Please model this.
Amino acid sequence: MDSEQGSCAANTHPPPRTVDLVRLFLLFSQLGLSSFGGSVSAWMHRAFVERRRLIGETEFIAALALARIMPGATVVNLAVVVGRRLRGAAGAATAVLGLLLGPCLAVVGFAILYARFAATTGLHTVLEGAAAASVGLMIAMGVSTGRHVVGIGTKSGRRLARSVGAAAVVAATFVLVGVLRLPMVPTVLCVAPLSIVFAYLVPSAPRSRERSDAGG
Model:
């Protein structure tokens, strides 16, 4: 139990790690050039949270939520938040430059090729396949982050209450935005305060209390 809790805590708040600006630029350039069909945020999650542990799961979820409700492109907003978290203002600028420079040049070249080969059936097949793969990647990221937020596998009373509340917020947001097609920003602004109040009223159990419960 302690090892599982320690692993979860390490994923939520990983030890501070630094990354130089050149490496940050190359990471975001790779993400921008290798991501298709709007799946950049999912690749960011895999690169910075799962593989390199540069930021925690909770931090990424909060950054993604902020990026979605702020004006502008979500991936650019997310790059700003992640870059700012890692290297301050210079990191934010570097992240955006790395994310956009390569794809912009690639799009110009692709537009030239597309104008020439637009009637080719194989080109449309490739694009449809890339879009389907990106949807699958987004679903995988949603499941991974959802498991973290809901806290699947926890059994203590307080943690169970937090899990049920988090699951209710996730389900309500999904139904309101995904099924009923209500505007995202007003919906989030209405649901988020309820989630914050619930998290305040049902705080996490202290680590010493969790360990004593596990030991007992």
